[in-house]
Amino acid sequence: MNWCTVYYDDTKSSCREYAKLFGQYEGILCKPASEYIGYPLIYEENSAVGFVFESDKDNVPYAVRHIIWRIIMNKKGQYFLAVTGGNRELTAIRCAVEDLEVRGYEVSNVYSKYMFEKYHMELGISAGKIVSDLENGEEQFRIYAKAAQGMSKKELRKMLRNELKEYKKHKKHRRTT
């Protein structure tokens, strides 16, 4: 029986690689996003749903966004986003989170290529990390968002500024190598 569905952008090779890795795990069903473009409603009965995509000019690709707009899922399920690269990953994550929140779904985990490179995780290890987080019920994104709400504006600004500096430094280093 399947307990997790992963919708992936099948036009990008990095997303297809992640889908192949997710497909190796028992109970995970991978579906290409382009197959659902013409559907007016998409019903998902699994408790965990993921979206794997590559940032497309600081936005979510249309095929994945179409699914986010049309999908009907359990409101108390676990939802994750995995961005496999592209320009302005963080902006694409923000767009996807906002689209899901408008629909009433709360994202529990967010993963990006930058995050996996920062912690020196390879492709296979990162897919295993995502699956283990889902199986264990870990919800990093919600915890991080609640912690940020409790901070003063000054502390939050300082933390975000430092994180943005690290991100820009990483991007610059990646371009030179």
Brief summary of the model shown:
With 177 residues, this protein is an alpha/beta fold. It has helices at residues 13-23, 62-70, 89-102, 113-118, 123-136, 140-149, 153-176, and strands at residues 4-8, 28-32, 42-43, 48-55, 71-72, 78-86, 109-112.
Can you offer a commentary on this structure?
The structure is a single chain. This protein is of the alpha/beta class and 177 residues long. The chain has a single domain, classed as 3-Layer(aba) Sandwich (Rossmann fold). 50% of the residues lie in helices and 20% in strands. The chain has helices at 13-23, 62-70, 89-102, 113-118, 123-136, 140-149, 153-176, and strands at 4-8, 28-32, 42-43, 48-55, 71-72, 78-86, 109-112. Strands 2-1-4-6-7 form a five-stranded parallel sheet. Strands 3-5 form a two-stranded parallel ribbon. Helix 1 (13-23) links the parallel strand 1 and strand 2. Helix 1 (13-23) crosses helix 5. The longest helix is centred in the last third of the chain and has 24 residues, at 153-176. The radius of gyration is 16 Å and the shape is globular. The termini are far apart.
